């Protein structure tokens, strides 16, 4: 454009200047879910098609996973429409990424509603050099916060409204949407892990919040929730009631905090302690208390469902000789080898194997009759007999088998199994007896 004095510029000159310099001007009609690019430079079509659905445009411009343009999961798409409704002029910076381009394009987006219509004009200007650098640096400084707090909003229960919605994985900008709290609650529940849904509905129930949170007080819930990619992660849902002048005000700040890494680490540690509490330190089988619990559980299952339950007790023959001849260290290796043999032979999930004490072991089998378990015990006896025990060589075991009967107490069945095992001992060892 020819350089003119300020007084000589016309509106047509300015419009031509804008047309030459803006990255794009897009006309949108939300009522028919369509948009059309009116003006664009050659780069903008790398990211946005000439025309298409308004919903796709929203996803492209800002409702995507930050810095990647990755699509959000289907459940979160329920919020898409709230990102495209504006009550007045709206402006923000956005980043668009295209395939094969490492560096995103940074744009200044301004939205102008066309009065009394469902139409908007989107004007985008590309930012360069120091503006882009400032924006990228700002994003890096906020990475820690964005990774911790995924979502926040302000709730007014009296008005049944939410506002100041911020989804940090999408954008740092706040969206003021016309959304009812009761609607939001039923949308979010679809993103909660099925086993956590009832607790989520309880803690987010308006009456629960009104009756249980005084001004300034906070409640929270740790649960699993889908992130924007559709993956379930551990989060902390936090409700904090605002301090207001009236006790009849029920305004809350709601936040979702990402606690996945710390929760996974904590659960892993708890599993370790749980295993230490339940398992025998030497053999890694269930310890005395745990196998006794399994026996009691099997009895409850039998009396409730009638599922057959059979048990066996095993005792290593002449184990004292091992300790006296080779030492206790060799005896420990024998017990560990014996335990490994039992686990390898009985991988079924319906089997519980435990160390009762010393060289005595108990196996509880749900779903097997005494005759079936007796046959299994005979095969197991042969397996033990053919096993080479380090430093010691061959070992044998004596086994007693019984099936739980109607009217049995735990003591009745256990004593019968114990008696059967001692009968195997008395009758020459290395044999199976069923009573």
CATH class of the largest domain: Alpha Beta
Number of helices: 13
How many beta-strand elements? 19
The strand line-up of the biggest sheet is: 3-2-1-6-5-4
User: What is the makeup of the main sheet?
Assistant: 6 strands, antiparallel
User: If you average the pLDDT, what whole number results?
Assistant: 85
By CATH, the superfamily of the largest domain comes out as Reverse transcriptase/Diguanylate cyclase domain
The CATH topology of the largest domain, please? Alpha-Beta Plaits
Overall number of domains: 3
The helix content is 25-40%
Summarize the structure.
With 435 residues, the protein is of the alpha+beta class. It has helices at 11-21, 54-61, 129-141, 143-148, 181-188, 197-203, 206-212, 260-278, 288-305, 319-326, 328-345, 370-385, 410-426, and strands at residues 24-29, 34-40, 51-53, 90-96, 105-113, 119-126, 149-156, 161-167, 179-180, 218-226, 232-241, 251-258, 309-316, 351-357, 360-366, 388-389, 393-394, 397-403, 432-434. The longest helix is centred in the middle third of the chain and has 19 residues, at 260-278.
Explain what the structure shows.
With 435 residues, this protein is an alpha+beta fold. The chain has three domains: 6-141, Beta-Lactamase (2-Layer Sandwich); 147-264, PAS domain (Beta-Lactamase, 2-Layer Sandwich); 279-434, Alpha-Beta Plaits, CATH 3.30.70.270. The chain is 36% helix and 28% strand. It contains 13 helices and 19 strands. The chain has a six-stranded antiparallel beta sheet, with helices on one face. Strands 9-8-7-12-11-10 form a six-stranded antiparallel beta sheet, with helices on both faces. A five-stranded mixed beta sheet has the order 14-15-13-18-19, sandwiched between helices. A hairpin with a 4-residue loop joins strand 1 (24-29) and strand 2 (34-40). Residues 130-146 have low confidence and may be disordered.
């Amino acid at each position: 454009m020819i350089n003119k004095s300020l007084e000589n510029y016309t509106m047509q000159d300015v419009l031509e200047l804008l047309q030459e310099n803006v990255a794009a001007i897009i006309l949108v009609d939300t009522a028919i879910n369509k948009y059309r690019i009116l003006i664009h430079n050659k780069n903008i079509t790398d990211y946005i098609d000439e025309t298409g659905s308004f919903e796709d445009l929203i996803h492209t411009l800002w409702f995507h996973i930050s810095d990647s343009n990755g699509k959000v999961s289907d459940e979160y798409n329920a919020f898409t429409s709230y990102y495209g409704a504006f009550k007045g002029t709206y402006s923000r910076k956005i980043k668009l990424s295209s395939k094969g381009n490492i560096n995103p394009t940074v744009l200044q987006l301004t939205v102008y509603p066309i009065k009394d219509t469902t139409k908007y004009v989107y004007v985008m200007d590309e930012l360069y050099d120091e503006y882009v650098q400032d924006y990228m640096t700002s994003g890096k400084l906020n990475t820690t916060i964005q990774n911790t707090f995924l979502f926040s909003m302000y709730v007014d229960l009296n008005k049944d409204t939410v506002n100041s919605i911020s989804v940090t994985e999408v954008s740092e900008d706040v969206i003021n949407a016309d959304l009812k709290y009761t609607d939001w609650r039923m949308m979010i529940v679809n993103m909660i892990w099925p086993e956590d849904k009832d607790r989520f509905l309880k803690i987010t129930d308006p009456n629960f919040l009104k009756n249980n949170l005084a001004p300034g007080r906070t409640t929270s819930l740790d649960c699993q929730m889908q992130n924007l990619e559709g993956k379930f992660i551990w989060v902390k849902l936090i409700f904090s009631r605002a301090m207001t002048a009236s006790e009849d005000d029920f305004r809350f700040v709601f936040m979702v905090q990402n606690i996945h890494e710390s929760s996974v680490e904590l659960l892993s540690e708890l599993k370790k302690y749980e295993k230490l509490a339940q398992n025998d330190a030497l053999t890694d089988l269930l310890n005395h208390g745990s196998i006794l619990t399994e026996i009691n559980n099997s009895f409850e299952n039998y009396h409730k469902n009638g599922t057959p339950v059979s048990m066996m007790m095993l005792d290593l023959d002449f184990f004292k000789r091992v300790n006296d001849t080779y030492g206790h260290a060799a005896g420990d290796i024998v017990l560990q080898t014996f335990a490994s043999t039992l686990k390898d032979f009985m991988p079924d999930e319906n089997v519980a194997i435990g160390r009762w004490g010393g060289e005595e072991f108990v196996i509880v089998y749900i779903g097997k009759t005494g005759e079936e378990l007796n046959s299994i015990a005979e095969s197991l006896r042969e397996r033990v007999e053919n096993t080479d025990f380090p430093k010691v060589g061959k070992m044998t075991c004596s086994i007693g088998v019984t099936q739980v009967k109607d009217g049995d107490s735990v003591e009745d069945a256990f004593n019968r199994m114990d008696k059967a095992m001692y009968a195997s001992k008395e009758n020459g060892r290395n044999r199976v007896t069923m009573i």
